[in-house]
Amino acid sequence: MKIDGKKIAEKIISGLRRLPKPDRLLSAILVGNNPQSLSFLKQKEGMAESLGVSFHLYRFDESITQNDLISEIKKIGDDPEVGGMIIQLPLPAHYDRDAALAAINPKKDIDAMTSEGRKLVSALPVEVIKDVLDSIGQDISNKEVAVVGRGFLVGKPIMEWLDSYGKSYKALNSKSDISEIRGSDVIITGVGKAGIIKQEHVGSGCGVIDFGYDLIDGKIKGDFIPDESFSGWYTPTPGGTGPVLVAEIFKNFYKLNK
Q1: Which residue in 71, 87, 219, 225 has a CA-CA distance of 20 to 30 Å to 256?
Q2: Where do the domains of the chain lie, and which CATH numbers do they carry?
Q3: Phi, psi of 128 (to 5 degrees)
């Protein structure tokens, strides 16, 4: 079964349309010209337009210094007309990501990137997992779970959530023996390497929630690329977790601007 992320996202957006629309800006910050980042921002801008939310993109060249970038982030965060802000990751390698994220105004941190921001809104990948599981009536409390990829954006917040949930799980990274996921009921992956999860390692009836995003010959691919014989359920890439993630960003934006 292929999970339709667009349908889940539309349900979230339909709920937001029934709420008072925030009258402040949603601002995004992009440094450089990463094509994947531009693709994600285009999705966010499109969803903002569908909701009638004002969206502004601040673009900076890779020549901007770390100190100047932090100053700009703080300036945007202090703007009373801005109700939510995003720093599109990844930043170019020569920037200190943690220092840049620490400069976000936590009251406008709709991506929940700061510790203070996570006290106000939930980590996005966690909410996406809940949305996907809810859409198919799944409960992971009695399931064997594997998390592939321990990255800052996906793996880390998911593992923190599972830890707080008291849930045991297998944790792997891109260099692990992927065959260790055999026997898992639910696999959550966010490596960003097309096809790293092999169908031979995913059992019958198993579910795969795929946050991976890779470009192969100009086409978007996920970590898991099943064929027609796959008998479990999964989120496809594109059209799976991506739309839900964007919808959850806007849910956080509305929440911080009630």
Answers
A1: 71
A2: 5-111+244-250 (3.40.50.10860), 124-238 (3.40.50.720)
A3: -65, -45
The pLDDT tens digits for 212-222 are 999 889 899 99
Check: CB of residue 206 under 8 Å from CB of residue 187: yes
**pLDDT tens profile 107-154:** 999 999 999 999 999 999 999 999 999 999 999 999 999 999 999 999
Cite the beta strand spans of 91-247 per DSSP E.
Answer: 145-148, 170-172, 186-189, 207-210, 214-216, 219-221, 233-234
Single-letter amino acid code for the residue at 196: I
Instruction: Please tell me whether the overall predicted TM-score, pTM, comes out greater than 0.70 for this model.
Output: yes
Number of other residues whose CB lies within 10 A of the CB of residue 226: 18
By DSSP bridging, strand 170-172 and strand 145-148 are: parallel
